[in-house]
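SUBJECT: A protein chain and its fold
Encoding: whole-number codes for local backbone shapes
RECORD BEGINS BELOW THIS LINE
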Amino acid sequence: MGSTCSLPSPHAAFFSVSFSTFSSCHPETILCDTGEFNCHDRATCIPKVWLCDGEPDCPDNSDETDQSCAQEMVIRCPLNHIQCVGTKKCIHFNKLCNGARDCEDGYDEGVHCRELLSACHELRCRYGCVMTRNGTFCFCADGFEVGEDGTSCRDHDECAMYGACSQTCTNTYGSYRCSCTQGYILQPDRISCKAKQEPGDSRPVLLIGGSDRIVITHLNGTGLKPLRSLGLNATLALDFQHKQESVCWVLSTESSGQLRCAETRNLRGFTREQEIRTQQSLQHVEQMAIDWLTGNFYFVDRVGDKIFVCERGGDTCVTILQLDLRNPKVFRISENVAKLERCNMDGTNRTRLVDSKIEQPTAVALDVVKKLVYWADAYLDYIDVVDYTGRNRHTIIHGSQVSITFYCFISPMGSSA
């Protein structure tokens, strides 16, 4: 396998592990969502509940400075909206001074609505004028934002905001359009994408690997079926080969390690199961991932502090990373001072993506369409996301909703998607 693993094809750079070739870019300052605090580095967003909690969460510690903690957290409302004072409620500019109380304390109405009329006329706004108790300013129609002169209007790029579209976002003049990549269809909400189900395709299923068995279930949790009993209590690493429609798993104990693969062309069990003998020992392997293009196996050795790759037949193996990997808890993440990293699939160009507000990373997943990296932290109880350069960080879920229990993944089981 020497030539296969030492110089992997660039087309194999985007399989579902972080050892991938990421494109470089330099995004502009990001905007945080409602309920988030924009760190002073202008590259990280954190939940506002983390602000002034006595523990630095921003890379630059700006969430714990006297300046940040001395003033009330400001909610970032959507475009053309304003926050009702003392609440988390945002109302549209059109509801200001319209004769109806939309904020509980009546902040949006009052004598200023009459007194500031002349001031609004003097601004000569291109679209409309906002009258608040603090003064007046111009605003634009939905889909537009005020220009640098404070009166004109220009297009607002909705695609720059995280979560605008499930997959592909195209900014248009005054609006935007979501679309899906090949193999997916746009849903009625015009935002979400769902994998196509062609005639004859099996429904997607969830494979779950435990220490003593491998089971399968539908995505809604029904129809739970055991596929194979493992017969011993060992560390299990599991992955799915899409082209061959087969499952491969590693059982690792203190005395031995074994790699096995079996076909799963139906949901009743495994067929044509076989052992793949590898050149390097799998005794201390804790995680495994399969490159879906080349079929190469990538392994994490928790004792040898290394990541190595073996060609599909197992005859040739090459160590690609062996530095600063003390007890890696999960593939694609190395833990010393906890951090999230990436590198090329031959181990070169090792780059750190995240090294703050991360304690016990336990899972990583890639969005190869939007070029995003998601991970879970079992200690801090959150799921976060950054782009391929480590910027534009957002928190997806935080708190008791985060629970990491099984090693599992979704298998199309024959679906074209």
